[in-house]
Design a protein that fits this description.
It is built from 4 helices and 46 strands. By secondary structure, it is mostly beta strands. It is globular.
Length: 740
């Protein structure tokens, strides 16, 4: 019996390549009558069905197996076009020059709302395929964004995945999920984000100069749009990864009318180790869902949301440097978004969003941090667009939010005091209970082409703070000028505000403020390769300062300036990008008012992401389909050194050097990932991966702790602790049904 089973297994392995269907693609660029790229055009292949959207360069690509197909092209302001084509043994290039026509929004199903206007700069977007291959062992899409120019982060596999954009603090970035603000979209203090790649249609990150449509944040906007479930076919995915397992399902409830998409994840390390774990084993689980209803060709209603839960209960037998000796956390998030998207007559488009969010978190970490928060917030937002002509658009919107907050916490008065077990650290206590209006906002902008080669976006935004009874006005301007078919220059400036919320403040606080200045040049070498260089300057003012008596004011200032370069290849077997960023970020100090390097300052960051798709005439199941290399080098971040200690009779006290005057050593990391893609059948596929983290086993410093005593030089001994060493991991994903 065993022999028969073995022969059957060998036979199945031998037959795998026979069932494998090699994919090719159709790709190209859509242009208008003046050879300018058509952005946001929709492409649809009804035989599969699948489709795509053109990017900021008017380009698209759609993967297909061998066969005969039709490509349907629709774009706002242009006549629809249908092209017949065949996929054989080679990729097919199909570039099209569209003819201008009447604006017919009803012809375009808006299934991937983009925040970028035609003049957007400092922008890169990713589709789910690109996110999935480069998000790493933790399966977190924010890890992909961290490889872009100007993005700093902790770097370790299990360190916070929070983004530090162009020298700004993590809370300076606005996160949106289906137009719902996610105020802290992370688990366990930032270790992993709440975003699930299985439900993402598109992620966009604007690292500066974003339009007046978005506000109350100083540095950046990250927009996550979930996709609709399939209106025609049932499909699903089952994945077992290094960090968590996941399951997703989608399909029509009423064919071509009502669809669903549900995805769930859960960690499993805590289930395996249980109480025997000698290190913290956090647990989290979440469910993301979306229901989409096509009311008629001009109206679509969607209801989406996410519910998550996390917990951790750990007491260390021995104190490990850099790790708290006690960790107890419990939290959950629930938020929903109801959206009605409507085409009105032939030139108007409206998106009405009603959002609701609830956050509950209890945390006790080490000797220093206790956190008890219960926050609820609901909001209404309406965005209205008027397409005056093909090249001129007016856009306006209003937003209102209402909420309540109950907060009680203790944390270090000096945020640079990071040792969780140091009982000598001075703590500040915060207690707050509030309920009422949170924000009222409105904006108006023009986006268009006043001259043949010039696109501009000019607008103004108003954000009213009902608590402090003031209104911030934020004018914005961006433009790009087409120097030639392959090159253009781009620029942006604007004022950006962010409300301050310090409940212990003795004085009323105004919003923090930043002014952006950005200038860039972009060049497209060919259809596959493009690059850009961009210089920026951010001037901060009205930053909040506080002293040991917790007196607060808006006297803080700062600046962040730098230059970034990106070279990217988007198509072909070999793809990837290389980026370099030089930056310098400073803030004034509390006591002296001098400019000092900011805690998130990193002068040099180099990222290299290379992926090679292996394609053979006869695919072999044992050969990898993809090889990915991810390399990162970054300057060390500043820290405040401890130069000595003294005993005051009650215990040892540290003597510190100048604030943030020392630097951690440089960060270096390289990861290698291998993927295997096997198509058993058009309705049953498998993906698996194997990844090596920190190939060079480089010791990246995460922080340091100190021991005090007369036996040490200067009465202090420093002990560094490090990020993850070389690690091996992998996972497998099974896909059921007709996949795009």
């Amino acid at each position: 019996m065993k022999t028969k089973a073995g022969l059957l297994l060998v036979a199945c392995l031998y037959l795998l390549p026979l069932y494998s269907q090699e994919k090719k693609k159709i790709y190209g660029q859509l242009t208008d009558g003046e050879n300018r790229p058509v952005i946001g055009a929709r492409l649809y292949v009804p035989e599969v069905p699948t489709g795509g959207i053109t990017n900021l360069n008017g380009e698209y690509q759609i993967q297909l197996t061998k066969g005969d197909y039709h490509l349907i092209i629709t774009a706002v302001g242009f006549e629809s076009d249908t092209i017949a084509f065949s996929i054989a043994s080679e990729d097919v290039e199909q570039s099209v020059q569209l003819k201008e026509g009447n604006v017919q929004l009803a012809d375009v199903e808006v299934f991937a709302e983009q925040i970028t206007e035609r003049t957007s700069i400092s922008n890169i977007s990713f589709d789910p395929k690109a996110l999935e291959t480069s998000e790493g062992l933790t399966e977190d899409p924010l890890r992909t964004l961290a490889s872009l120019p100007g993005i700093g982060r902790g770097g370790d596999l299990f360190s916070p995945s929070q983004l530090y954009v162009r020298g700004g603090a993590p809370d300076e970035t606005l996160f949106l999920l289906d137009n719902n603000k996610a105020y802290f979209p992370y688990y366990f203090g930032g270790q992993k984000s709440i975003f699930n790649t299985d439900v993402i249609e598109n992620i966009e990150l604007l690292t500066g100069g974003f339009s007046a449509a978005y506000g109350n944040h100083l540095s950046a906007v990250m927009n996550v749009q979930s996709r609709d479930g399939s209106f025609t076919d049932y499909k699903g995915k089952l994945a077992i990864g290094f960090y968590n397992s996941s399951l997703s399902a989608e399909g029509p409830i009423v064919k071509d009318k009502l669809s669903f998409l549900v995805a769930a994840r859960r960690t499993y390390l805590d289930l395996i180790l249980k109480e025997s774990a000698s290190f913290p084993t956090p647990s989290f689980g979440d469910v993301t869902y979306k229901f989409s209803y096509k009311i008629n060709p001009k109206h679509k209603l969607t209801f989406s949301g996410l519910s998550s839960q996390e917990s951790l209960d750990f007491i260390a037998a021995d104190t490990t440097p850099g790790l708290p000796n006690r960790m107890e956390t419990a939290g959950n998030n629930h938020f929903q978004s109801l959206q009605l998207k409507s085409s009105l007559k032939s030139k108007f488009y409206n998106k009405l969003s009603v959002t609701n969010g609830l956050n509950r978190n209890l945390s006790e970490i080490g000797a220093n941090l206790t956190f008890d928060i219960k926050a609820w917030q609901m909001g209404v937002r309406d965005d209205f667009s008027w397409f005056i002509t093909n090249h001129h658009k007016l856009k306006a919107g209003i937003e209102w939010q209402y909420g309540s907050l109950d907060l009680n916490s203790n944390f270090p008065l000096d945020p640079l005091k990071t040792d969780p077990n140091d009982t000598t650290i001075v703590l500040q206590q915060i207690s707050q209970a509030s309920q009422g209006e949170v924000i009222r906002s409105a904006y108006l902008l023009y986006d268009g082409r006043p001259l043949k080669d010039l696109n501009i976006n000019v607008g103004i935004r108003a954000d009213q703070n009902p608590d402090e009874n003031y209104t911030d006005f934020s004018p914005r301007f961006s433009a790009n000028y087409q120097l030639s078919k392959k090159s253009k220059i781009r620029a942006a400036t604007g004022i950006f505000h962010q409300f301050n919320s310090y409940p212990a403040a003795t004085n009323s606080l105004k919003s923090s403020r930043a002014i952006h200045y950005i200038l860039g040049y972009e060049y497209r070498f060919n259809e596959n390769i493009y690059g850009w260089v961009e210089a920026y300057n951010k001037d901060y003012s009205n930053l909040v300062f506080y002293d040991s008596l917790q007196n607060y004011d808006n006297s803080g200032k700062g600046n962040s300036r730098g230059i970034e370069l990106l070279l990217r290849k988007e198509k072909g077997n070999f793809q990837g990008w290389i980026s370099y960023a030089f930056a310098h970020s400073q803030r004034t100090t509390v006591l002296t008012g001098e400019y000092k390097d900011f805690e998130f300052d990193q002068r040099h960051i180099v990222n290299l992401v290379m992926e090679y798709h292996i394609k053979t005439e006869k695919p072999q199941y044992y050969a990898p389909s993809l090889i990915l290399v991810n390399f990162r080098y970054a300057d060390g971040t500043p820290y405040t050194p401890v130069t000595g200690a003294f005993n005051d009779g009650t215990g040892w006290r540290a003597v510190e050097g100048d604030p943030l005057s020392a630097r951690n050593k440089d960060y270096l990391n390289m990861n290698i990932r291998l993927e295997w893609h096997i198509d058993f059948h058009p309705f049953f596929r498998m993906k698996s991966f194997f990844e090596i983290w920190n190939v060079f086993n480089y010791k990246n410093v995460q922080g340091r702790v100190y021991q005090y005593g007369s036996q040490y030089p200067n009465k202090v001994k420093e002990q560094q602790y490090y990020a993850s060493p070389i690690l091996f991991g992998g996972g497998i994903k099974l896909l059921f049904g007709k996949q795009n």
